[in-house]
Design a protein that fits this description.
By secondary structure, the chain is of the alpha+beta class. It is 15% helix and 47% strand. It starts with 6 loop residues before the first strand and ends with a helix.
Length: 432
Amino acid sequence: MTIENPDETRTLRNIRINYTNIESLSDQGNTATRIDNQTVNVVLSGKKKELEQIRPDNVKAYADLEGYSPGQQRVPIVVTIEGSSADVMIAGTNPSTALVEIERINSKEYEVKIDHDGNLPEGYVLGDIASPKVKISGPTSQIAMVRDVITKINLTDKTDSFTVSNTLSVIDQNGEELVNLRTVPESVNIVVPVYKTVVLPIELETSGNLPVDYETTKMSVNPPSVSLKIINKNAEIPKTIKTSTVGLEKLINMDQIELKLELPEGFDFVDKDAVYTLNYDIEKFTEKDIAIDRAQINIISIPDGLEIDRENMPQQYALKFRGYESEINKVSPSQITFEVDASESVVGNNSLRLKLKPLDFKSITLVDTPLIEIPLKEKEVANPESNEEQTSKENSDENKTSTEENSNTTDIAAPTDEKDKKESENKKDIKE
């Protein structure tokens, strides 16, 4: 015999679970950070005809989170059937509980990191941007993952200051955005200062003097110029930027001096951490006695008829030199040469002024440019006998040359001599 309305079971799959009283977690300073179960399978039992009338929309699944504390919690899943008869019953659910991770809500304040897109035109710099602070709230585990709260501004072709209103992104250590966190406020206004720049040479300001016998051979500022941003557009641009006054007397006992620049009104440094130093070399003067050989003295313009009386001229002259200690201790006496102008000298001792010829050591000079005694005498006249002997020798040489020439022309000249003899005799007879 056939039963018209038998008892049966029926499974409705993937019924969505509705989690209730989530706000009660927030009231307790908690939040659900992970819910593993989103659907449940429901097993129904009852009469066949009644079961066929039940649709999945009639089945509701709930998990009530009220009263649960932080940690992993198993929350019972409660199922109800809407519009069903008493003959339909819930035989079971799979799973019967939902696994929920509950965490404490935490909050932390962060300074917004401002990133840039694009570049300013040449000759412009970005000023100091005031980074706003925001509060990040969310599960403790995710707060611990926060690396930065960031926003971006576009600098392309900007030549003046501007303001933008930007949303924020919260990122973790891998640069991935954390979406389960809340920022307060959700967006921020950012003032972006843009300044024109100018490069000025640095002018060193000094006072006082170095101690006696000291001299600076090199003095320069490093770097020699500074880049400034123009804060006040109406400010007059100076030609230089001056340093604070440096007392020269302090240089002797210092290896290096750090300079402070006098910032003109309406300007600011592009690089506030830049260091400016004074580079210098200091030389000490000293004196030294050096013996100079007379061969190192070139005497010029000696008057005609006079010559140096070397027998009465000293072999050496003791002279005092002055120069940098570093140079005067290196110079060799053989490197020093002089010139003396004797154009107005006379016979006897002449006090003539020495002229030091240029040296490779530029600092070395003669002390007081001294006068030295140069003896001159008349040039000696040559011995007359010696002159006669010389003349005789010259005549002998000439006669020898003449004889040789006559010997070579004897044959040609003989007839002429005979003719001259006859003419002479004829003239004698006429005279008688």
